[in-house]
Amino acid sequence: MSMTKKHWMILGLFLLAPTAFAAEEADSNSFGILGGFSTNKNMVLQAGVGLPGLQTKFLIGILSQLDVGGILELNWADIHGGDFALRFQGAVRYAFYNSGRLGLSAGMSPGLRVEFVGNNAGTFIDVLLHMDFSAGIRITPQLTAVVAFEIPLELWTKGEFSAYIPLVAATGLEYGITSSLKLWSMVRAGHGFSTLTGSNSWAGRLAGAGGLGGGGGTQGGLFSFHVGAAFAF
Asked: Of the candidates 138, 133, 119, 149, which has an alpha carbon nearest to the alpha carbon of residue 210?
């Protein structure tokens, strides 16, 4: 039995529908910002506000899987008890797997934090060697969920040298408004460990800043939350 014109139209729509969806998905997810997926050779400016402060990140996709850039943060509620802190970090992200729906990436963001503490406790300059592993899952063509495990390692150089090792879990969402604009949110929580106790430990720093005081080299309840937007150029 020969096919009518109507049948051919229905068959054509059926065959073209997946192609149209794929084109929409590729357009609205042409760049990733929170992890899992790369910027796909775009230049991306990401900015956000929340707790503990303001953050900006600039990434350049030098390869389809490799992004490099920098991070600048101003924290007015620093987790170590400081009045405020500035963070200057480089950023490298390698997206080593991309199935279209699932993306996996690893990153590092070395840099410095300048922490200003009140009550005559002084100024601290710490070396940052942050590492992360992220997975991005495209729920819809516009919506991507990201989960990450982070080790934001810090080397404290004030007084006796010590290392501070937080273990942090993170989750976030990014939503494509247009092919060059995304909104995003990110929540992080975890626990930190210091190699020293006493005056150079986290608790010792808080004592100098009028905080918790006492001995011990651990810090629980690490938490941060940011919302913002990202633009691709």
From this structure: 119
Q: Quote the pLDDT of residue 209.
A: 38
10 Å Cβ neighbour count for 54?
A: 15
State the DSSP string of the chain. Answer: -PPPHHHHHHHHHHHHHHHHHHHHHHHHTS--SSSSS--TT-EEEEEEEEESEEEEEEEEESSSSEEEEEEEEEESS-TTS-SEEEEEEEEEEEEEEE-SSEEEEEEEEEEEEEEEETTTTEEEEEEEEEEEEEEEEESSSSEEEEEEEEEEEEEE-SSS-EEEEEEEEEEEEEEESSSSEEEEEEEEEEEEEES--GGGSHHHHHHHTTSS-SS-SEEEEEEEEEEEEEEE-
More confident of the two residues 8 and 184? 184
pTM of the complete model: 0.77
Choose between 27 and 161: higher pLDDT: 161
